[in-house]
């Protein structure tokens, strides 16, 4: 399959976990980003949710999302460490190798980069025995990292091998971060790229951006920024990124549509991405092997 | 005057925990007598039994091996099976509670305190796979075994070591591209440092060697070779390395005792080291030329 590096997210789809997984698989995808809520809210319990994912045969791109983790103190920190451990446990049970962490929006969070780096470093150490990598993603409305540049700074500061950056195309397109800034990313410390588009030409305020991000995203190629999105992905590809692409599409309309219909749209987007933008002519056998080829 | 650390990187103390060697290595097996028989061929002697659990202590020289046949009652710990597996190692530290709290602070997973896998009252964290890492600070005047174990009568509690054997290290198998992650884990939590790739001991040269901050033992991280890169990730403590100042003499005395060593074109005994044939379904020991810690330079 030419788009085996591209996956959907269960958060884009309506329905039960099994319905979502079937829609993803039937649309031809081989991997899926799992929202932890989809697993733990399974009517048969978490174990049944885990079994459903395992039985789907889909590879787990990762688990999303640990939120408001970093920069907290004392009992708030201890509480979030417990949350993190529970999510790491779910991720390991699913056979996932990546936990997505979204930069904190908590007003209790310190904005001190040293404290943030220390907390994320601790999270990464927690993830080591479970074989999980931690991908830290900036958010425009975050207090700790507003975009991938700040996230990359924190990751560099923490300097733990299994802590890397997740880049969300939406944040780049909507915030107007220059594409040249993607060059600062170390491809080996970039663990995930999330892609989506949206319909408006322009996002005027941070509030509008937050609303757009969480309600009005569409699949790549469906929105108003196909060209910018192509350039974004081409740049990452040129820079040597060989990891996964995940459709990070949150759209209230999609949650009122049959999941298989949404999955077909995602498939169209994946074909567009793989054939028009990535032109990865051959299936990617394995990241390590590609790295070796790159020398 | 500016703060010293503004100008240059002042390294943290190399051994913040006061790590001082391995106190014991634990094997889990549902056939403790079979493993005990094997250990005795290596010169270990059973010296004590746990007061309430199916756990035995074997010893020779400075080495303690705990054989645990008790079914696991803590999640993510080894359930004993016929094939013995290394289920834990215990690190000697200056202050076990401090070492434990510091490790938790830095991101280790704690073991529920009331349910220590061995019921030895020492703190432990999760290690690789289902294994545990204990922190032990009572190893001088009195020991952890005094409390939880009952000595086997008429047995010499300090049997001498065969051919000066001592714990040299543990080989840990890690997943593809996982060496850096585990190096970080051991260096953060316990102050291990990776050795340059050209530094080698013994006859099994794969992987990366991590040296303990006390320089008394090593962890060797080995990734799967190319052909196995796509297999499911399996990470575990694979074998124990026994140091001896004279490998040839050690091999000779162990062979007399019934231990068999691999003798193939690629792997065979030499003065640098030796590897036993797989025992009891896959367990192995490795001999490595090494002077016991405390007996001069290695």
Brief account:
Chain A has 295 residues and is of the alpha/beta class. Chain A has helices at residues 17-26, 36-40, 46-56, 74-94, 113-127, 148-158, 169-175, 206-215, 226-238, 259-278, 287-294; strands at 6-9, 31-35, 59-67, 98-102, 133-137, 163-168, 190-195, 197-198, 217-218, 245-247. In chain B, the strands form two sheets. In chain B, strands 6-7-5-1-4-3-2-8 form an eight-stranded mixed beta sheet. Chain B has a seven-stranded mixed beta sheet with strand order 10-11-12-9-13-15-14.
Which key terms come to mind for this protein?
heterodimer; A: 295 residues; 8-stranded parallel barrel; two-stranded antiparallel ribbon; B: 8-stranded mixed beta sheet; 7-stranded mixed beta sheet; 6 helices
Notes on the structure:
The complex is a heterodimer of chains A (295) and B (298). Chain A is α/β, with parallel strands linked by helices. Helix content of chain A is 44%, strand content 16%. Chain A has eleven helices and ten strands. In chain A, strand 3, helix 4 and strand 4 form a beta-alpha-beta unit. In chain A, helix 1 (17-26) packs across helix 10 and helix 9 (226-238) packs across helix 10 (259-278). Chain A starts with 5 loop residues before the first strand and ends with a helix. Chain B is α+β, with helices and mostly antiparallel strands. In chain B, 17% of the residues lie in helices and 27% in strands. Chain B is built from six helices and 15 strands. Chain B has helices at 4-7, 32-41, 96-106, 144-148, 179-190, 247-256; strands at residues 22-28, 45-50, 55-60, 63-68, 85-92, 124-126, 132-136, 149-151, 166-173, 193-194, 208-211, 218-222, 236-244, 273-275, 285-289. An eight-stranded mixed β-sheet of chain B has the order 6-7-5-1-4-3-2-8. A seven-stranded mixed β-sheet of chain B has the order 10-11-12-9-13-15-14. In chain B, a hairpin with a 2-residue loop joins strand 3 and strand 4 (63-68). The longest helix of chain B is centred in the middle third of the chain and has 12 residues, at 179-190. The radius of gyration of chain B is 19 Å and the shape is globular. The chains are: A alpha/beta (295), B alpha+beta (298). Chains A and B meet through helix 5 of A and helix 5 of B.
């Amino acid at each position: 399959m030419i788009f085996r590096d591209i996956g959907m997210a269960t958060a884009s789809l309506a329905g039960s976990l099994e319905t979502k997984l079937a829609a993803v698989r039937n649309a031809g995808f081989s991997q899926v980003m799992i929202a932890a809520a989809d697993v733990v809210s399974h009517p048969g319990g978490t174990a049944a949710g885990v079994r459903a994912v395992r039985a789907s045969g889909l590879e787990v791109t990762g688990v999303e999302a640990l939120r408001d983790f970093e920069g907290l103190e004392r009992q708030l920190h201890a509480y979030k460490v417990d949350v993190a451990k529970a999510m790491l446990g779910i991720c390991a049970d699913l056979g996932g190798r990546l936990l997505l962490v979204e930069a904190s929006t908590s007003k209790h969070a310190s904005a001190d980069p040293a404290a943030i780096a220390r907390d994320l470093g601790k999270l990464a150490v927690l993830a080591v025995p479970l074989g999980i990598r931690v991908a830290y993603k900036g958010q425009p409305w975050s207090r700790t990292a507003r975009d991938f540049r700040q996230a990359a700074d924190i990751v560099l500061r923490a300097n733990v091998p299994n802590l890397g950056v997740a880049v969300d195309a939406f944040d780049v397109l909507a915030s107007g971060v220059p594409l040249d800034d993607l060059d600062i990313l170390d491809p080996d410390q970039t663990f995930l790229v999330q892609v989506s588009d949206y319909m408006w030409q322009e996002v005027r305020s941070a509030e509008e951006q937050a609303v757009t991000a969480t309600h009005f995203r569409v699949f790549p190629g469906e929105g108003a920024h196909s060209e910018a999105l192509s350039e974004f992905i081409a740049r990452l590809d040129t820079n040597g990124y060989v990891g996964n692409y995940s459709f990070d599409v949150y759209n209230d309309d999609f949650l009122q549509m049959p999941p298989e219909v949404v999955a077909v749209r995602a498939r169209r987007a994946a074909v567009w991405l793989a054939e028009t933008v990535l032109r990865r002519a051959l299936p990617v056998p394995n990241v390590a092997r590609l790295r070796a080829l790159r020398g | 005057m500016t703060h010293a650390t503004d100008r240059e990187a002042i390294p943290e103390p190399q051994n913040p925990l006061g790590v001082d060697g391995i106190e014991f290595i634990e094997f889990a097996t549902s056939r403790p007598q079979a493993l005990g028989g094997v250990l005795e061929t290596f010169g270990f002697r059973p010296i004590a039994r746990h007061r309430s659990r199916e756990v035995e202590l074997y010893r020779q020289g400075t080495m303690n091996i705990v054989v645990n046949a008790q079914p696991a009652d803590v999640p993510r710990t080894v359930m004993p099976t016929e094939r013995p597996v290394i289920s834990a190692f215990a690190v000697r530290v200056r202050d076990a509670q401090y070492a434990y709290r510091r490790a938790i602070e830095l991101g280790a997973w704690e073991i529920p305190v009331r349910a220590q896998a061995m019921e030895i009252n020492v703190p432990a964290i999760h290690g690789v796979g289902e294994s545990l890492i204990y922190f032990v600070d009572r190893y001088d005047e009195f020991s952890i075994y005094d409390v939880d174990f009952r000595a086997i009568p008429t047995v010499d509690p300090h049997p001498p070591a065969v051919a000066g054997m001592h714990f040299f290290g543990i080989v840990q198998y890690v997943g593809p591209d996982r060496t850096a992650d585990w190096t970080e884990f051991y260096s953060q939590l316990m102050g291990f440092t990776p050795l340059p790739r050209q530094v080698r001991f013994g006859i099994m040269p794969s992987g990366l060697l991590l040296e303990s901050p006390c320089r008394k033992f090593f962890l060797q991280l080995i990734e799967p070779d190319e052909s196995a890169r796509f297999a499911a990730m399996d990470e575990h403590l694979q074998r124990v390395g026994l140091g001896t100042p004279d490998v040839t003499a050690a091999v000779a005395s162990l062979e007399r005792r019934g231990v068999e060593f691999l003798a193939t074109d690629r792997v065979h005994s030499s003065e640098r080291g030796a590897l036993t044939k797989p025992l009891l379904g896959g367990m192995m020991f490795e001999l490595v030329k090494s002077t016991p810690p405390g007996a001069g330079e290695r």
